[in-house]
Amino acid sequence: MSGGLPFATVRRQRAEHGERQAASASDPGDVPWLTCLNARFDLHSDAQIADVLGIAPTTIHGVRHGKARRGILQRLKILDRIGFLHRRQWLENSLPAPLIARIRRSSQALVQQAVRDAEAA
């Protein structure tokens, strides 16, 4: 024997290294989700997205630049907000136009108030 590591150990270490590399790269779905929230809630910065989600702005920045991944809590918060948008859209499809506009204005006002509250804190 050459004194090196057994082949199975080397293969496992290589696989673990590949998993770490894959985990360190940003999920390609991260940025589109953030962009969706940005556009649909009429937010103008990543800091405002962070305020609405209740997470640190550095997390949003890290995700956008491929240096971080969303944790499970952040994913759930984003999915909750996107789920709200889909429910709102479904509701809008069954209502008259004036009521749709009123619902959108109300939703936007609530989000903007949350942003202002977070910025004031």
Global morphology = elongated
Poorly predicted regions: 20-27
Distance between the termini: 65 Å
Q: Quote the beta fraction.
A: under 5%
- Helical content stands at over 70%
Structural class: mainly alpha
> Tally of extended strands?
0
N-to-C SSE string, H for helix and E for strand: HHHHHH
Taking the sheet with the most strands, its summary is:
none
Number of helices: 6
Averaged pLDDT, please?
75
Query: How large, in whole angstroms, is the Cα Rg?
Result: 21 Å
Structure commentary:
α3 packs across α6. With 121 residues, the chain is mostly helical. Helices cover 74% and strands 0% of the residues. It has six helices and no strands. The N and C termini lie far apart (65 Å). About 7% of the residues have low confidence.
List the main descriptive attributes of the protein structure presented here.
single chain, 121 residues, mainly alpha, 0% strand, elongated
